[in-house]
Amino acid sequence: MALKAHKEFFDASVFLGMHGDNDEVRKACMHFFASRFCGVALTSLDEVGKCDDVIWRRPRLLQDAYYPFMDRLHSEMRIVREPFSEAELKRAFADPRLQRLPVGDRLLLAKVIEAGGSLFSIQAHLTARSDLPVCSPATDLETDFPAEVAGLYHTSLQLRIPMEEIRG
After folding, report:
1. Residue in 93, 94, 88, 95 with CA at minimum distance from that of residue 129
2. Is-contact 12 50, C-beta < 8 A?
3. Between helices 60-76 and 45-55, what is the axis angle to 10°?
4. What are the pLDDT tens digits along the chain (168 aa)?
5. Are 132 and 97 in contact, with CB atoms under 8 Å apart?
6. Residue 72: inside a domain, yes or no?
7. CA-angle at 85, arms to 77 and 15, nearest 5°
8. Residue 168 domain-assigned?
9. CATH label of the domain that carries residue 140
10. How many domains does the chain have?
11. Residue 166 placed within a domain
12. Cα(91)–Cα(111) distance, integer angstroms
């Protein structure tokens, strides 16, 4: 009998963190995606919308520098964007561990728990909790994107997001 692969989810903070104004956090978030470029990472459709909301409020010139990288990443990396299931919705409001979290976090964590996975985040109110399957991206990785994607990433760094905006 084959073992089920552990599912790794990410939230908007890790995705936006690739363009954060703190270099240590930015590199950890970038390495999270670069090290999984040939693998799979999961998120919810809601988290994608949160990212778009932040980027679309930036000046057009910064968006133009950012989106070629993002388009390439979404096209070449297997990022699975899932809607919420009925079981996940029920868990979000029934699981006592999730009760005091913002609704968006409850929903995503319910998805993660239902899948038996882990959530990567840089949000302190989540990473500080030992009762939830949440961890931070590793800060000691040296992985980079494939050369062409790496070039687009470095150009996209014209857009930098304040960490307080990313971490909410």
Report:
1. 95
2. yes
3. 150
4. 455 568 999 999 999 999 999 999 999 999 999 999 999 999 999 999 999 999 999 999 999 999 999 999 999 999 999 999 999 999 999 999 999 999 999 999 999 999 999 999 999 999 999 999 999 999 887 789 999 999 999 999 999 999 999 976
5. yes
6. yes
7. 35
8. no
9. 3.40.50.1010
10. 1
11. no
12. 8
Q: What secondary structure letter does DSSP report for 135?
A: E
Classify 9 as helix, strand or coil.
strand
Helix or strand holding residue 62 (H, E): helix 60-76
pTM strictly above 0.90: yes
Dihedral sign of CA atoms 132, 47, 57, 26 in order: positive
78 domain-assigned: yes
Contacts of 158 (CB under 8 A, 6+ apart): 61, 62, 65, 66
95 — phi, psi (to 5°)?
-75, 120
Range of the domain at 21: 8-160
Residues paired with residue 20 on neighbouring β-strands, in sequence order: 161
Residue with token string 């985040």: 121
The DSSP call for residue 99 is: T
Residues contacting residue 28 through CB under 8 Å, at least 6 positions apart: 17, 122, 136, 137, 138, 139, 141
